[in-house]
């Protein structure tokens, strides 16, 4: 359950009541601070929801629960600006040992919200700051979950699942990379093994990138060279690239009990 410092008017009585109820029910709490839920005295003191104001509000609230012997909580100091949010969490990490719940609140719709969240989370997690997180997007909740999972996988903090490596297309591309990648992505939807599949659109950089993946294709001149763990195993017509990749992926995962992650 989240405790909002800005909504607690009679702190001594209410905090004691909340602490007792949480202890009796055996549940943990989140002290959740953001620009609209600061202790009402702090905006007057600091002038705005600065990193210092966010951290100070959260720590003061935490101290009240500590007075009543309750420490089963984590802290969040969310803000819509990544710079402010990052600075606030850094202050918390220096001043307490409580678990920290990361969040860029009101981040907006994708891709804006995705980029803002990924920027802030990547910086903090790379510094060892953060124990749980919530990606807040103006999008269906499932998109928030997908974004969070992909972020953790990219940072090596969650076991890797299927990953598609693909080039952005350029003047050297001899295939419609966008269309080919979309077909490969659709074909591998739900594939349960943590393969890295490279979809490359030329014969210049393509072979090198394809060799680095578990499975890949380097396309050009209406054909595709299929790579499996660094080796070219065959060349197929462009129209057969997707089905060949699926065949080789199944063969690769069936022939080995372990797939590198």
N-C termini distance: 35 Å
Q: Please count the helical segments.
A: 9
What Rg, in angstroms, do the CA atoms define? 24 Å
Main sheet strand line-up: 6-7-8-9-10
For the report, how would you describe the main beta sheet?
5 strands, mixed
Q: What is the β-strand count?
A: 10
Q: What is the string of SSEs from the N terminus onward?
A: EHEHHEHEHEHEHEHEEEH
Low-confidence segments, given as residue ranges, are none
User: Helix proportion of residues, in percent?
Assistant: 40-55%
Mean pLDDT: 90
Structural class: alpha/beta
Beta-strand percentage?
15-25%
Principal-axis shape equals elongated
Q: What does the model show?
A:
Residues 1-148 form the IspG TIM-barrel domain. Its cofactor is [4Fe-4S] cluster. Pfam families: GcpE, GcpE_C. This is 4-hydroxy-3-methylbut-2-en-1-yl diphosphate synthase. Residues 163-248 form the IspG C-terminal domain. This protein has 261 residues and is an alpha/beta fold. 43% of the residues lie in helices and 18% in strands. It contains 9 helices and 10 strands. The chain has helices at 11-25, 42-46, 51-67, 82-95, 112-126, 141-154, 177-187, 206-212, 241-254; strands at residues 2-3, 29-33, 73-77, 101-103, 132-134, 163-166, 196-200, 215-220, 223-228, 231-237. The strands form 3 sheets. The protein has a 5-stranded mixed β-sheet with strand order 6-7-8-9-10, with helices on both faces.
């Amino acid at each position: 359950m989240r405790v909002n410092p800005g909504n607690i008017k009679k702190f001594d009585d209410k905090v004691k009541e909340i602490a007792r109820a949480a202890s009796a029910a055996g549940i943990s709490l989140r002290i959740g601070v953001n620009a609209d839920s600061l202790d009402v005295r702090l905006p007057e003191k600091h002038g705005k929801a600065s990193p210092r104001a966010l951290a100070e509000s959260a720590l003061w609230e935490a101290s009240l629960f500590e007075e009543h012997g309750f420490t089963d909580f984590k802290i969040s100091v969310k803000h819509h600006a990544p710079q402010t949010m990052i600075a606030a969490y850094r202050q918390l990490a220096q001043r307490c040992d409580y678990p920290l719940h990361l969040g860029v609140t009101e981040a907006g719709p994708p891709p804006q919200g995705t980029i803002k969240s990924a920027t802030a989370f990547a910086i903090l997690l790379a510094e060892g700051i953060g124990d749980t997180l919530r990606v807040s997007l103006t999008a269906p909740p499932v998109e928030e979950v997908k974004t969070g999972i992909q972020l953790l996988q990219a940072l090596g903090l969650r076991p890797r699942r299927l990953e598609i490596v693909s080039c952005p297309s350029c003047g050297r591309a001899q295939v419609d990379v966008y269309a080919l990648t979309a077909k490969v992505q659709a074909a591998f939807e739900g594939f349960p093994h943590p393969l890295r599949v490279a979809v490359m659109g030329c014969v210049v950089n393509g072979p090198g990138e394809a060799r680095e993946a578990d499975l890949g294709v380097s396309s050009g001149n209406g054909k595709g060279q299929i790579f499996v763990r660094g080796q070219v195993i065959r060349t197929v017509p462009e129209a057969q690239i997707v089905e060949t990749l699926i065949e080789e992926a199944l063969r690769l995962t069936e022939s080995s009990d372990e797939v590198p992650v």
